[in-house]
Design brief:
- Two copies of one chain form a homodimer.
- In chain A, helix 6 packs antiparallel against helix 9 (158-193) and helix 22 packs parallel to helix 26 (590-610).
- Chain A is globular.
- The first copy, chain A, is mainly α.
């Protein structure tokens, strides 16, 4: 069992590494040569053109004065007011930051209260000391003296914990309520002041029934002309361009390879690069690389032209789905929120995602298949969650020091060194978990895609839900209770409903030290690593040195991606869970949580301002999920406290504690009814107000022209706009024609993460070869 | 333990009583003097005016020929085709009958299969005989030899049960799917061919926000003129007439008493009736009854006039709710199915219930109070469900013969008579349950009302859900496992998740005989009693003899009420549950279920055609609930079978059985997505089609005039139409002005069941006195 000393060592190690990272970042960000890594957002926005700011014109910043203000990025990150942040990085980012803020709002008062009330109550007992004196070989650390473990069985002092559980619950709910209110009004405010966007007028229609006499396009037009005669404006059919897209991707990859080989040849003109045509370039005939790729590209270009014509001309490649646009937002709101046809499986309407948010591959899944796919995905997820744990438990059992000593006695002298022992004990379990977790999001995203969701934002939200469940089962429960996950499931099935919270609850205080180190390793160091951007830094520099030839290449190499809601949010939720569970049990853990939330808030605010570039704007649509998961954490914490107290001879507290989850769930239900509609529906009053305002401002607007090409599959978009738009007034254009040049380029067809295989750029291809 | 002989006695007794009831009914229905009890529906419809049919002109039918066709009512009940039935008694009734039909469709094939496969498999074992030979004092009956109990532990024969569980599940799901499809299309068909009704054009708006400058009426008008400018037609505010209604009710009661006393004086002119004015007429000053009531009525009439003016004139008595009518069904459909305002707790719109379906008292509950009330109702229901069981268990423990003998040894000689013993053993537990169940629906309806639902149909559906849960916990589980309900809950909490199905599953085969007698007592005899209508028969005859003076009185005395979805449907569901649970375990129970469903179908078809008068038309809105509960029964049966098999040494079957509930729940989810929208939403295409048809048929329709008074509180309606409409063309009028004279009279303000206290008629008042 880790002592306070162990934790001290781990904390010191982590603090040092965090400080090192922060100092390194503070230093590197001032170097012009890394400017594109640490400030890509500004390049993408067109505010910065060249890394050389006024005065500083070299690769390395030699002006010593700037180093004096080494921490200036912190106030800079905090300085930007929220409305400006929304303007700069979108509502999603601003709302995302509020998750960290809500963590601070919940836990700072809780920590003060817990330290003022619970710590004295716990500390002034002698249960643990006495039990040691009595000869029961109980090993305990100083942390346990601060925790609920130090209270004797059946003590009246548990009353304090009971009251605190109520206070913490009410405070958390109060903060959640306020925050839900703020976010909902932010969203509505954003919707109201938003500029004209194609998706405000557009509805996605799916499962258009087949008709022998009419094409999909005619059918859609007739249906909406009849049923929404006053409001229908135009529509766009959806082509099944998946094949074409593959071809385009393939061609692009070959082009990258060609460019790479030409570059090699340029640098070393004495030797023309060669390549084997067989599997992975390992076998087969040897050919001249440049010629080979040139031929390939030529062949693919021809194929592409043919396929392009074929796709556009062939009625079979038109999917039974369409984007239908209306004259007014009111008309679109009506159509999106009502049922069109008596058969509820055809003519399904929903709000169209914004053009860059569309996940094109899933637009044509029929209804029956959709329900079947969901079943399969659910079963697959169940097995993933419960059988993925076996390897984790295996590694964790290795992390047991006694186990290692037994398995490899020759390591004993090394392990017995106090510092190393603490190090291993503090870090190993956390790292083992971390490695496993890196593999996971991709699988979960694949599962979500399989389910047939039609927008990237929905995919990310779904993946986040899955990931949260996974973390809950595997990291939280998996760390508290030993044994493989499936063994746990098995034991839970064989345990009674009131035994389960007891089993977990009893282990909770004992695992406090483990979770403290986990917070430091996963949370603190993770954030420090985040701001350093070590991997993007190296990759960008490599690309920049070897491969970037044009500005376009540089821009592509610089692309920082988005913040990744699907992985980052569930991880934050784990800290909420830990904080709420340990608030009453071991308040000593709370400061670590607060430090995490505070650091994360500053760092992510900096990153959102300077680095990340949002891929879509869902207007904070994920908040109901965030809210729901904090509520889940709250209920779990209440149940576990109930279990814990009933083993501590305080079973008479159970009736008082049972009230808490009931009230909490009711509170959730209340919030759901009160605020969730703001995230799911679009009130007609708002729609009308915006319509009216627009009509007075721009009475002669050519809406049809504006909407005409808004929802064209990006693969067709590429044709037209290759370089026809200049980069300068890009930002301005973005607000008018939504999928602008840059976005459509980045979306060729959609960001790599959503494509299974990534669309390899020149740089990627080369790196693959080199690394 | 009841033997086959006991069951035989109980069955014989029940069959005899059923036959007696049926013969009595067949005889009584031919008597003209009972015509109004057995055929009130026809009187209400205006088809029959006088009980004396052509030829038969006396009180007693003396024509012997008609007695030869004593069972002619059975084919007569079955003869009416479904479309005519819908026309005659409404869609709700027709769909309600399909619940019995679905029972037959599910269980007849299952019974054949079970008897063909499972009975031989069970019968050809000797487990029970052997265990008796071995001296383990196992008492078993012949029924158990037909059940799964007769299979030795770990036998390969369980494979047959496993396969049958699959077959039964698939068959049930198939029937459910087909039936959902049929009912959904019946509903849509009905909606399409339905005549013009006020609720097609009307939306109920609740939580109109208070405004200092405008009245509710102005506010509503302005809001909808702005936000639905093309479609808004008119609106009606809702008055808080609860006080006025109480007064009207009181006055009516006094009027009845007056009429009663006048009648008494008429019959016995020598003595003027007197009355004491104190509590319940038991103490206080003695006064002349007729004078007293005359004065009272005069006083109340004055009060009423004042209150009526005050209510109509006072803006404070206008509730923040309104019925808003639109020009077209399309406009109403749009408004009912969208959110109006950015704050989702104000301007709540939903489809208006049809006028006679409105539950006026609940129209003004604000949003926050609504959620709070639901919480309280849920908690109250929980306690009701789990603490109501204590008396039942007490009575059941008395029903234990050995217990009675011990408690009252002097009864021993009586009880030991074989016939009486069988009788008590067979009937007592069932009767004890039955008595308790009679008390329940009123309480549940009060709980539902407290929750704030705004239509009677919704109230009945909600009460039905509660009642089903109650029956499931108390009748089903309560009968299987001994001990009070709270003890059970307690033991379930202390048992593991896989132990619970085992505990219940093991007891299932042993309880087969109990449930068989329950089916006979509750099901068979209940139905026979239903068709006899003994209670209405006596009451009507008493009323008719003593009290009926005018045709209006007679009509009121005749009112048969509605079928009572809130109590009858959950009871049917109990038979579905029993049938599905025992299908694999003790197939011997199935024929009893089939007889129940067959008899119930015929009897209720007869009753719906000839007796009941629906109070509202929800167009089969309850079907999703019915479907959901059969699915619940299916899942319960699967889980219990899993538990049972795992105790029989067939634990290896568990993985195969786990698949079943997963598939069943998925099937439910699929059906919910596929068919439920037909019951919740109104597709725009349909709305438009009806609008168009109407426009071509009646281009000059005065819709505003038609809708003007459709949603007036019945207490105000009474004023105008007291006897202004003649009775002759009533049926015709009904289709135009929905709350017609008769209905509005019956609805003064709503049927007694929904008023807490009933509105006493002359007849009731007198009966109260006499009985």
């Amino acid at each position: 069992m880790a002592t306070l000393g162990d934790i001290g060592v781990a904390a010191a190690f982590n603090i040092i590494s965090v400080v090192v990272f922060l100092v390194a970042f503070a230093f590197l960000r001032l170097q012009p040569m890394f400017d594109m890594v640490y400030f890509p957002k500004w390049y993408l926005k067109g505010v910065r053109i060249s890394p050389n700011r006024s005065g500083v014109k070299k690769f390395v910043n030699l002006e010593w004065r700037s180093y004096l203000r080494i921490l200036e990025w912190v106030p800079a990150a905090l300085k930007m007011p929220e409305p400006e942040l929304i303007e700069h990085a979108g509502l999603d980012s601003a709302v995302y930051l509020r998750i960290y803020l809500i963590g601070l709002k919940i836990f700072i008062p809780i920590t003060f209260l817990a330290f003022a009330v619970l710590v004295p109550v716990n500390w002034t007992n002698k249960t643990l000391e006495l039990s040691r004196d009595n000869g029961t070989k109980l090993v305990y650390s100083d942390i346990d003296k601060l925790s609920i473990s130090n209270i004797p069985e059946g003590s009246q002092r548990f009353f304090a914990h009971l009251v605190m559980a109520y206070v913490f619950t009410f405070w958390t709910c109060y903060v959640l309520l306020k925050e839900y209110e703020i976010v909902a009004s932010m969203r509505l405010q954003f919707l109201e002041t938003e500029q004209r966007r194609a998706d405000q007028f557009t509805v996605l229609v799916r499962n258009v029934p087949p008709d022998p006499d009419e094409s999909v396009s005619e059918l859609v037009e007739h249906f909406f002309l009849v049923n929404h005669s006053d409001h229908y404006l135009t529509h766009q059919v959806v082509y099944n361009a998946n094949e074409l897209q593959k071809l385009v991707k393939k061609k692009k990859s070959k082009q990258n390879w060609l460019a790479y080989n030409e570059l090699r040849y340029e640098k070393n003109p004495s030797k023309r690069p060669t390549k084997k045509t067989g599997f992975l370039g390992l076998c087969g005939e040897k050919v001249d690389s440049i010629d080979f790729y040139r031929e390939e590209i030529e062949r693919l270009s021809k194929e592409e032209t043919i396929l392009r014509e074929k796709t556009k001309g062939n009625p079979k490649s038109i999917m039974p789905a369409a984007f239908v646009s209306f004259r007014t937002r009111w008309g679109a709101a009506v159509c999106a929120q009502t049922q069109q046809c008596r058969n509820p499986t055809i003519w399904l309407t929903e709000w169209a995602p914004e053009p860059r948010d569309v996940y094109w591959e899933n637009l044509a899944v029929p209804f029956v298949l959709l329900t079947l796919k969901r079943l399969i995905a659910a079963v697959a997820f169940f097995f993933l969650t419960f059988f993925f744990m076996i390897p984790i438990a295996f590694v964790q059992s290795l992390a047991n020091l006694e186990g290692i000593e037994k398995a490899a006695p020759f390591l004993r002298p090394l392990i017995e060194v106090k510092f190393i022992k603490s190090f291993i004990q503090g870090l190993l379990p956390g790292i083992a978990l971390k490695i496993f977790l890196i593999l996971l999001p991709t699988i979960l995203m694949m599962l979500s895609k399989f389910e047939g969701l039609v927008s990237i934002s929905a995919l990310e939200r779904r993946s986040a839900s899955k990931y949260y469940i996974f973390l809950l089962v595997n990291v939280f429960l998996g760390s508290i209770i030993a044994g493989t996950a499936f063994q746990q499931l098995d034991s839970f099935i064989h345990q009674s409903a009131n035994e389960i919270p007891k089993t977990i609850g009893v282990s909770i205080p004992m695992k406090a030290t483990f979770f403290i180190t986990y917070i430091m390793v996963d949370g603190w160091s993770g954030i420090a690593g985040e701001i350093m951007r070590l991997k993007p830094l190296i990759i960008f520099k490599l690309k920049d040195m070897f491969l970037v030839k044009t500005e376009k290449d540089r821009e592509e190499a610089m692309d920082p991606g988005s913040i990744g809601f699907d992985t980052s949010e569930p991880q934050i939720q784990l800290y909420f869970l830990l904080g709420l569970v340990y608030a009453v049990v071991t308040p000593f853990l709370l400061p670590f949580i607060i430090i995490f939330f505070a650091m994360a808030y500053i760092v992510y605010r900096h990153q959102i301002i300077n680095v990340y570039n949002q891929e879509y704007e869902s207007r904070g649509a994920f908040w109901p999920d965030v809210h729901g998961r904090i509520i889940t954490a709250l209920v779990i914490s209440q149940l576990l406290l109930m279990g814990l107290l009933s083993t501590k001879g305080a079973a008479q507290s159970t009736p008082f504690l049972v009230v808490l989850p009931v009230l909490t769930i009711w509170f959730h239900w209340f919030c759901k009814n009160r605020y969730e509609p703001a995230f799911k529906r679009y009130p007609l009053q708002e729609a009308l107000r915006q319509d009216t305002r627009e009509r007075t401002k721009e009475p002669n607007l050519d809406l049809k022209g504006y909407l005409l090409n808004a929802y064209i599959h990006p693969v067709f978009k590429d044709e037209d706009d290759d370089d026809s738009l200049s980069g300068q007034n890009e930002k301005e254009l973005e607000t008018i024609l939504v999928p602008t040049k840059r976005q459509s380029r980045r979306n060729t067809p959609v960001p790599s993460k959503y494509n299974g295989s990534s669309s390899p750029s020149l740089a990627d291809a080369a790196l693959d070869q080199q690394l």
